[in-house]
Fold:
Amino acid sequence: MANGKRNAGGKAGAMSAICARWRGNEFAGLMGSNFKLNRHIDMGQTFGRMKHILIALFAAFAALAAPAALAQDAAIEEEPARGEVLYEDATAADNPGVPEGGASEAYSPMAPTEGKGMPTAYQDDALASMTFQDQYTETGAYALGMHNYILMPIITLISLFVLGLLLYVIVRYSRRAHPVPSKTTHNTAIEVIWTIVPVLLLVVIAVPSISLLAQQYKTPPEDAVTVKAIGYQWYWGYEYPDHGGFEVISNMKTAEDALADGEPFQLAADNRMVVPADTPIRMQTTGADVIHSFAVPSLWFKQDAIPGRLNEKLIEGIPEGVYYGNCTELCGTLHGYMPVTVEALPKEKFEAWVKEQGGTMPGAAEVEQPDADADADADAAEVALAD
Structure:
């Protein structure tokens, strides 16, 4: 009986311990779940606060950006008018001999040649639309030839060789064809070949590349015609320092005017940068407000126009014709509406155009100077005789 009571007491004690342990685990689990719940609640509140803070920051940014956007829109509306006023002032005040309508009435722009100096549409020629435009300067022709006859063949051969080598390795050394992998780590012949061949290829590319760089940085000759392109937001001004310093303001034509004149829209300008054909051009660029970039792809020319800095580069003799470009530096809202239209005229027509703009040819002042000196001498002689 005593043993039975002891066994019963022992079993009861064990059951009590098990119940206590189970209750402890349940309590711990409950506490853990409460802790996790509280943690999730705290994280949710934190994310909620962060969301409200982000919304407030976004609202503040929108409130600050709205006046700037309105001011920029107002500037967009004012800029074309500003360009027109500048051009009217230049033609009316600087050109007293020009009719009241301005020089544009007497000047007849040259008609463009289809496919010359302009991009090619994909519908007209898919291949030509994906490569460089035809080049009309000596440097441009050299660069295009290097691209077509040196770079592209080398790039194509290397790409095909690597592709063929990759396919060969996939087939030759697959698990099915080559179950036991090779443990080769070095091959002297292959290592020598893959070191020497790339070096030779780089030398072949480097020689014409260095020559092209040298051509692009030639110093303009002394008799080169200077044209200074000034980038504004968002139009161009062309100043002619050698011809009296007058400036021509150039804005983009409307779609109707461009199509009526047979010119590509967004590349046609109301006033072109006129230069003499087959004459070296000393092209200078600068910016009046932000950084712009003066680029004419068919002349292989691109130069940044930076405020406070005057960049200079040579454009070789340009054949007669019309050549189109645009600003290639992100300069603001109307960056895509800053076309460049270059017109190369025969020298006689260029001289006539300069006179219409109120400018002078470089030698005209030197020719008139002796006459002025002779008149001064004659006046002095008359005064002496009168005395």
Remarks:
- The chain is about 50% helix and 15% strand.
- The beta strands are 225-232, 235-240, 246-250, 273-276, 281-287, 292-296, 301-305, 311-315, 321-327, 339-345.
